[in-house]
Amino acid sequence: MTSGIIALIVLGICVFLFITKIFSASVVGCMGCLLMVLLKVCTLNQAFSGFSSSILFLMVSSMIVGIAMFKTGCAQMIGSLAIKWSHGDEKIFLIAVCLISGILAMFLANTALLAAFFPIIDSVCMNSSNRMKQRNIILPAACAVMFGGSSTLVGCTPQLTANGLLHKISGIEMGMWTLTGPGLALFALFMIYLVFFGYKRGEKIWGKRTFTDLGISEEKKKNALRIDFDRKKVVIMFVIMTLMIISYITAFIPIAVTAMCAALLCVLFKLCSAKDIYEDLNWETIVFLGSCLGLAEALTVSDSAHVIGNFVSALMGNSHNPFAVFALLVFLSLFISQFITNSTAIIIVLPLALSLCTSYGFNPMPFCVGVTLAASVACCTPLAAAQITMTQIAGYEFSDYVRYAWPFSVISYIGILLVVPLFYPF
After folding, report:
1. pLDDT profile of the chain (426 residues), mean per 10
2. Which helix (H) or strand (E) is 243 found in, with range?
3. Which of 269, 276, 274, 272 is closest to 236 using CA atoms?
């Protein structure tokens, strides 16, 4: 048995364990890397090379900047803008929350961002004399965070996972703004859907249900609307964020180095402490991403990508239409992501897509972007992504997610098929 086939068997075992959730994702990922070493698919250094990857440092640094945003009160101050703009109107408040959180999610860890907005939303709704309801706001806000976060390389974990796989298998990488054009187009489509259809659809699905207590402590609700933070720290935080974004845009220094410099400045200026970082970093996600990059390296050195490509090519025969292959892979990514986490769906679909690109001579970038976006915007079930799972505190039923999100999932699918090839030809 060749090393390529052995690597695919190990990957299959990991995917099964990811789906069944017998063990945590980080444990499964590390186990997969270790199996690759024990079965002599690759060396120890290759299997765990993901933990020294610049992509991992980029994600960790972005998380630290996000922690500093919340500790200094910048996030709360930005959230208060949504309250000011709405003037007590639920629909305007919803649109403001979605726009603000979606834009912030382009640069900050979106799960932490969403968690910070929960007490803001709850406090506003509790003080609105029943004019605003949490259910009408929380799920759309989670979707907005997902769409905004999918528009840049640092927005959320799926695109970092995809970029690692792309680099390991094809030798090329996505840049900070590779996803921005198609991602913002989808975000704009979501906002249009929300304004004209989504808001009314949500009210129709769950609008008559009784109030749900989100379980957020009174202290958190009170702190969510505080504005009496250290002004000096707030100014420093905004300066760091501005410099970071300028560096991202100009590409003056590498993206990962930019994020690391911003994170270090946050610590040096005491905008967050080492203790805050230890307590608030999402270590499960960090270990999961590092192990996924290691699995990708093992697949690359074992030449399993060619095994996949040759098998699928034999099944497809002479059908080499790039758009047809693209449409199939995007649908597969969007469908699978409804039932397992989006990063796991990318691990399943993207190696297949890149193998087909190698076999057929297609440009791998549109396939990587399409598969990544499809996985990142899946929101028809609470299993699709961590952000969607978090919204269950508002008391949504499983069917609520399907009924609310399926129309836009169809729109997203069509949007990806139309928009991505405009930016990245096959």
Report:
1. 85 81 86 92 89 81 83 76 77 90 85 77 72 87 93 87 88 91 96 93 84 63 65 89 85 84 93 87 81 79 69 64 91 85 83 84 94 92 79 83 92 96 94
2. helix 231-250
3. 269
In whole angstroms, what separates CA 370 from the centre of its chain?
14
Considering only CA atoms, which of 119, 95, 110 is closest in space to residue 198?
95
Number of C-beta neighbours around residue 402 at 10 A: 15
Q: Distance between CA atoms of 167 and 324, rounded to whole angstroms?
A: 24
Tokens of 116: 């910070």
**Residue 11 confidence (pLDDT):** 83
Give the three-class secondary structure for 384: coil
**DSSP 3-state assignment of 305?**
helix
Q: Pseudo-torsion of CA 149, 182, 408, 200, nearest 10°?
A: 70
Residue 283 in tokens: 């270590």
With beta carbons less than 8 A apart as the criterion, state whether 164 and 55 touch. yes
pLDDT in the model for residue 107? 84
Q: In the structure encoding, which two tokens stand for residue 398, read together? A: 């499983």
Neighbouring residues of 193: CB distance < 8 A, sequence distance ≥ 6: 407, 408, 411
> What pLDDT score was predicted for residue 225?
61
DSSP state, 426? -
Q: Which residues contact 369 (CB under 8 A, 6 or more apart)?
A: 174, 178, 179, 182, 420, 423, 424
The two tokens of residue 73 are 């009160």
- Per the CB < 8 A criterion, the answer to whether 334 and 348 are in contact is no
